[in-house]
Specification:
374 residues; alpha/beta; Aspartate Aminotransferase, domain 2; Aspartate Aminotransferase, domain 1; 2 domains
Length: 374
């Protein structure tokens, strides 16, 4: 990458072979759900300890299906972190349940399990934690808590495909896990997601839920056994995923190199909070930094504008769900979850993807330093 090229904060890496494979699928005339979807489901399942895995059109759709799979609806409560993307909150609300927010750790952003336990009521049906790059929360404690109160766990693992807990990949143990294949994730299917479940009975229900709630009758006519939407992935998307999966280890190795370079090159400026460093077996989907902008004569908008002018794209990951209009409609508001709110105020997502080099990271860090302290 030349010094004049614009450094996007995220972008996919699509091989010529995957582009050719898409053309082959298009020429096959089997472009909706078909053999490539089944092939990718089996390949992903092998990375998740051979647990049943189903593909959907997005991680958001997978969350909706997961909540239905757990029979969560009107009058139920689901505990989730105030610091996560909006999908978790939205799908909880959409199914008729109430999102119950708790705070997170400032550095790892892992859900605060002490607050989770304090928030459990007779209406609580599930815990929906979000995992962030660099460090998982205490998975043993999470599942011990769920077992104690007989709760389902729906892991939002959209950002951490490939991360491990005590040597076991996320998704290969526990209850339900959700993954994302959006173009800014660790691998892509253009748009797409996956749900990993416990057994074939649950997987068969996912098959129904992801396609209108339809089942086939013995005479080959159809019945709708429960109202549902349409979330089935196409073979066009799946064939991209198959090629991405063959490159996955190389992608993660390059992301680790870039994350390590950020830690080595980032300017040591008081008040800035970097992501967690040094945890084994973690993948790096993004590199988010907390900056007290006012200390440096900036707002976040002006800081991002300065980086944009220098050819560097940035993102915001994430706003606090409980301060959104939807969150406030459930009685939440400013000042309730200080870590989530500080992250929402100060976070900025810097470029991290396999199209970057360590030289790009060095230049990004230099621009950050100039923007903040000259």
């Amino acid at each position: 990458m030349t010094s004049s090229a614009y450094r996007k904060f995220a972008q996919p890496q699509l091989s010529e072979a995957s582009i050719q494979a898409v053309a082959d699928v298009l020429r096959s005339n089997w472009i909706a759900t078909g053999p490539r979807v089944s092939e990718l489901e089996q390949a992903l399942s092998a990375t998740f300890g051979h647990r049943p895995t189903r593909l959907l059109t997005s991680a958001t759709g997978a969350m909706e299906v997961a909540l239905a799979l757990c029979n969560i609806g009107e009058g139920d409560e689901v505990i989730t972190s105030a610091q996560t993307f909006f999908s978790a909150m939205n799908m909880i609300v959409k199914c008729g349940a109430k999102p119950v927010f708790v705070d997170c750790d400032l550095v790892t952003r892992a859900i605060d399990l002490a607050q989770v336990e304090a928030a459990i009521t007779p209406k609580t049906r599930a815990i929906m934690p979000t995992h962030f790059p660099g460090a998982l929360g205490d998975m043993d404690a999470l599942y011990a808590l769920a077992k104690k109160y007989k709760l389902r766990v729906i892991e939002d693992a959209a950002l951490v495909q490939g991360s491990k807990w005590k040597g076991k990949p996320v998704g290969s143990f526990g209850d339900i896990a959700i993954f994302s294949f959006h173009p800014n994730k660790n691998m892509t299917t253009i748009e797409g997601g996956a749900i990993v479940v416990n057994d074939e009975t649950e997987a068969q229900r996912v098959d129904v839920l992801r396609f209108h709630g339809i089942t086939k009758l013995p005479d080959q006519t159809r019945d709708v056994v429960e109202a549902s939407g349409k979330f089935n992935m196409s073979d066009v998307s799946a064939v991209i995923g198959l090629h991405q999966l063959t490159q996955f280890d190389d992608f993660m190795a390059q992301r680790q190199v870039l994350a390590d370079r950020y830690f080595n090159s980032f300017p040591q400026i008081p008040g800035i909070v970097l992501p967690p460093q040094g945890q084994p077996d973690q993948t790096w989907n993004m590199f988010c930094v907390l900056i007290p902008y006012e200390n440096f004569g900036h707002t976040r908008s002006s800081f991002r504008a300065a980086l944009h002018d220098a050819g560097i794209g940035t993102g915001v990951s994430y706003e606090a769900c409980h301060t959104t209009t939807v969150g406030k409609s459930f009685g939440y508001g400013d000042g309730m979850f200080p870590n989530a709110e500080r992250i929402a105020r100060e976070t900025v997502t810097l470029p991290l993807h396999v199209g970057l080099t360590v030289s790009d990271v060095d230049e990004i860090c230099a621009v950050v330093k100039r923007a903040l302290v000259g």
